[in-house]
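Session log. Operator J.P. requested a structure for one protein chain; no other inputs attached. Running the standard single-chain path with token output.
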Amino acid sequence: MLIFILKRIAYAIPTLLAITFIVFFVARLAPSSPIDIILGDKPNPVAKAQMEKAYGLDKPVLVQYADYVWRLVLQGDMGTSFANGQKPVRDLIAQFFPVTAQLAVQAMLFAMVIGLPLGSLAALYHNSWFDRLAMAAVVALVSVPSIVLGPLLVLVVAVRLHWLPVSGWDAPKYTILPTITLGARSAALIARFMRSSLLDVLRQDYIRTALAKGLSRGMAVWRHAMKNALLPVLTVLGTNFGTLLTGSFVVETLFQVPGIGFESINSITKRDYPLIQGVALLVAVIFIVVNLAVDVLYGVVDPRVRTQERGEG
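Structure written below.
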């Protein structure tokens, strides 16, 4: 398993470099530069030249990229933000990312609490009224994007019923609507995959054998079916958690949550190249780490994966 992890880390290095290259050059394709945003439509040529030199934008783009990668690899320096008082990007990420991580964890827990039991019960009561109702709810939640669900929840729960605040992040009650908005689609996906996976396992011969030996249906499901049914769902949980960590841009903007997603939208509008590059790199690292964690969990849950890994080693 250790060799497998080291190989995955080694494969991740060229991926991260490719991402930094693409983001670095794509960000500079915008029609205006951060200097134009700061100084306005008709900047003083002298002031513009001075700021370009101060920010290192007067150098050729390839030289700028080489400097960026050199500082990133050797010093872990992501640069300084153009639009946040020359604060280091690393400090800004450390400031805003915990809020996004909290929102993502809450949304993931919400999705698991709703999705896993809903999918399991739908499989156990296959073709019943509960199964049909649950799958109808799943299709509805998968079809409604967060940019639609969020305003609907605000309109009904916050504006009409006055149960929860509209936006902010000052107390636990402020986190409820963003958590539901962000986690609803993941809950639906988890329920759908859990239902499909458990139905497939329940049709296996070893489940029929366990029932034939006198084991109750509930114990057969709990002891044998549930563990095997969770294996395909682990991938869904991992990819969804990575998506929640990095895909909260819309939700944070809707509810004015001071996280990395909300700050990223501001950085794009202000052409804050270093912060855009830092967030893109953070997103890439998160997905790599989450996928690696899912692979490790496969080995923990299913011993056959560990046996196969030792055989390959």
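Operator note: Residues 50 and 304 are 62 Å apart (CA to CA).
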